[in-house]
Amino acid sequence: MTILTNISQLATCRPQGAQGDLHIITNAAVAWDGDTISWVGSEKDLPENFKTHPKIDANKRLVIPGLIDCHTHLAFAGSRHDEFEQRILGKGYIDIAKSGGGILSTVKATRSASAKQLLNHCLDITKQMAALGITTVECKSGYGLDIENELKTLRVYRELAQVQPLTIVPTFLGAHMVPPEFARDRENYINLLTNELLPIIAKEKLSNFCDAFVEDSALTLDEARQVLKAANNLGLNIRLHADQLSDGHGAELAAEFGAASADHLECVSEPGIKALAKAGVIGTVLPYSSLFTFQKPLDARRLIDAGVKVAVASNFNPGSAPSFHLPIALTLSCTLNRLTPSEALKGSTIYAAQVLRLDKQIGSVEVGKNADLAIINAQSVNEWLSQIQSNACLTTIKGGTTISS
Ligand code: NIG
Question: Is any atom of ligand 1 closer than 6 Å to the C-beta of 106?
């Protein structure tokens, strides 16, 4: 058994209560056996017989559950820095996409990259994520857009899960866009996804999730519905890139499927929000995207007031969100999306775990859950997230083992 003591505030992030209820314990301690939490409470209540066990001293700092980044496009090759300048000079994200740049330029580079190159890129990033207090990362495909390269990406994620300590949750996003070779034959790309790729993914258990991007430059609502229906029939959980650059009724489609989440939602309508609330779909806010696409950020209070839980993620990708710094995304979700720091933290711990259907194992500091923890150089969540810092995480513990300090 190992015991983490001298914690000024422990944000347990238990699921009960409102978005901002973190169920904080002051002057706390946490104990674990192997990789599993066995005791949580006030340090003064630590059982007498625990006193002889090895201790880690939190030095009166804040302790949180390991952070969960529930929306990333981790495996990609190439760079889109020229588009950054074009967007500043006024060219729209969709205009760039329609002229063959954007996602398609990353598809070209990712198809040319070997599995080894993609794996090395992912390893480099996950190591830096661990240092930020992140212990679980969702990773989408969607820069392959053909059988060979979508499978290559998902197999890279499978290997990644085995060779580094973070929990990796792969998501199939073959419905990210229609690739150029199918531009005049869109129906056959949808058939390829539904009749060929999805059955292989289900058979090889390469992903438990299927995502789609509904947008003017990506899939129509009906195309996305066909893909999601096929995924649903194979037992995959559904997620959706919804209402990002225009209101395409993506929220309503996510509700129709009882999706694990509807992500983006910058342009969501009031009926869309009502549909999410009724279906119990979590809304994921991705503040880097509005920052980098010069869009009006989503007012997440609209979701919370309607009874929709809000998750927060980085959306790390080379175009609309070129950063994997989740703690800064949390601060931006406060300044841009009007979440409180406590609400942002719940959105990147237990609610993110619910999105990934892993909330029985991770996302909160509770007996029986994985000992995934981060020690933060602050006394409170407000103090931590009210500033932008290069890294406030002092120590990251994954399954009871210190993986970064
Ligand atoms: O979530 N919106 C679609 N997909 C990504 C962007 C990917 C890219 O620009 O390469 C997103 O923002």
Answer: yes
Closest by Cα among 332, 247, 349, 342 to 304 = 342
Residue 250 is predicted with a pLDDT of 98
Burial (CB < 10 A; 0-12, 13-18, 19+), residue 143, is buried
Output the six-digit token pair for 291. 């920052």
Q: Which amino acid is at 328?
A: I
315 C-beta closer than 6 A to ligand 1: yes
Please give the mean pLDDT across all residues of the chain: 97
Q: Is the confidence at residue 97, as pLDDT, over 90?
A: no
Residue 95 CA to ligand 1 centre (angstroms):
14
Q: What CA–CA distance (Å, rounded) separates 399 from 376? A: 18
Q: How far apart are CA 271 and CA 269, in angstroms?
A: 5
Judge contact between 308 and 282, C-beta under 8 A.
Answer: yes
Residue 125 CA, ligand 1 centroid: distance in Å: 18
Residue with tokens 């002229």: 99
* Residue 261 in tokens: 């989440």
Q: What's the CA gap between 309 and 287, in Å, rounded?
A: 16
Helix (H/G/I), strand (E/B), else coil: 287: helix
Ligand 1 pocket, residue 289 CB under 6 Å: yes
CB of 11 closer than 8 Å to CB of 381: yes
Question: How far apart are the CA of 103 and the centre of ligand 1, in A?
Answer: 7
Q: Which amino acid is at 55?
A: K
Q: How far is the CA of 8 from the centre of ligand 1 (A)?
A: 39
As a whole number, mean pLDDT of residues 61-74 equals 99
pLDDT at 325 over 90: yes
Structural contact between residues 177 and 218, judged by C-beta atoms closer than 8 angstroms = yes
pLDDT in tens, 345-356: 999 999 999 999
pLDDT score, position 243? 97
State how far the alpha carbon of 172 is from the alpha carbons of 19, 214, 352, in Å: 28, 15, 18
Instruction: Give the DSSP per-residue string, 23-66.
Output: -EEEEEEEEEETTEEEEEEEGGG--GGGTTS-EEEEEEEEEEEP
Q: What is the pLDDT of residues 128-138, one digit of tens each?
A: 999 999 999 99
Per-residue pLDDT at 217 exceeds 90? no
Average pLDDT over residues 112-126: 98
Lookup: tokens for 90: 């006024």
- DSSP H helices, 132-264, are 147-163, 186-191, 198-203, 221-233, 250-256
